[in-house]
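Page 42, continued from yesterday. The earlier attempt failed because a stray header line got pasted into the input along with the sequence. Redoing it now with the clean sequence only.
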Amino acid sequence: MARVAEALIYDWNTAGARQPAARRGLEINDETLRDGLQSPSVIHPPIEQKRTILHLMAGLGITSANIGYPGASSRALADVVVLATEIRERGLRIRPNCAGRTVESDIIPIGEAQQRAGTAIEAALFLGSSPIRQYVEGWDLDFLLRTVDAAVALARRLGLEVMFVAEDTTRARPDHLRRLYCAAVSAGARRICLADTVGHATPWGVQRLVRYMRRVVGPDILIDWHGHRDRGLDVINTLVAAASGADRLHACALGIGERVGNTNMEQLLVNLKLLGWCDVDLRQLPEYCRTVARAVGLPILPNYPIVGKDAFETSTGVHAAAIRKALHTGDRWLANRIYSGVPAEEVGCEQQVTIGPMSGQANVLCWCERHGLPSDPDLVSRVLALAKSSNRVLRDEEIFALVIQRAS
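This time it went through. Structure tokens are written below.
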């Protein structure tokens, strides 16, 4: 198949240039059930829906998940315990972590959740690091260093593995980041997270930051990347972070989260798969996205990439003619790529040809073939006439009505 692809698709992404590569064993952390639920417009789902979402994450090969913020409330703590217990009892291949500030009142509930669930929970402890945050809060670097040291030391005494997050990393001074992250590592953190908390970073800024921090912490400390989408650069920034040396990437289903959201999980996973940076089965991706959309009360727009209704649908005559010719070769691989950069079968979908004002004969012929109906010229003309007089794509029942009318 690779030879066929090379013969039929000239790839400017790789031809004549060295394509960057991610680190081996690249991990994905799903933030849907924590940062995703910080969106001002979502509904917080009940625990049964969270449990379903957790299983879908594991089915997609997502390696870890932030399952909540147990310091926020007794309900949040209870949900974290249920989800962590589910991971242990069901043997889900996904590792839990929980967010918390670098304060005792947030760290102790994570330790309690780990003890009650009987399984390891990583503590993702965050503290603002940028000059603007320091100015507003009245903090200085000495205070931050003391706070980091005390927080990480407490978490380690509670038996928690720690990932330290210098919040607003992409607007923080290099010397401050170096000292903060090194303090966290000295206190026992084995993973750090670089956070583009307000979606400020550009791809070249991400590259500089990740490479700088890799030099600072060395090869043995794991580096996470956590991006936001305020400038719409979330997915490309996350891919650049992977190519620059990040070990784990954070994302949320449908890109939900604080303000306009986090890195979009489904777009990230598809791009990682197409780049050859991960090899996971993405056929459950639409179900994962639809389940999250129902759980949090947000619609999936028709033109949404990968999982929107229109992602693999065309009503345009020129496109339909090419897709029909590809289908007639008997090669679904060909049909799913002739007018799509994302192969539909990779995400458990198929190309759909519909009929609307921009359609031609090929659209009607495709529709008839898909429904096992004869496609004589008179029927084709009638359907096209109805489509051309419409201001939208025809519904199946409207076309069937013409078929029945003609038959009678």
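Notes: The beta strands are 27-30, 64-66, 95-101, 122-128, 162-167, 191-196, 222-227, 248-251, 313-314, 352-353.
Reminder to self: strip header lines before submitting.
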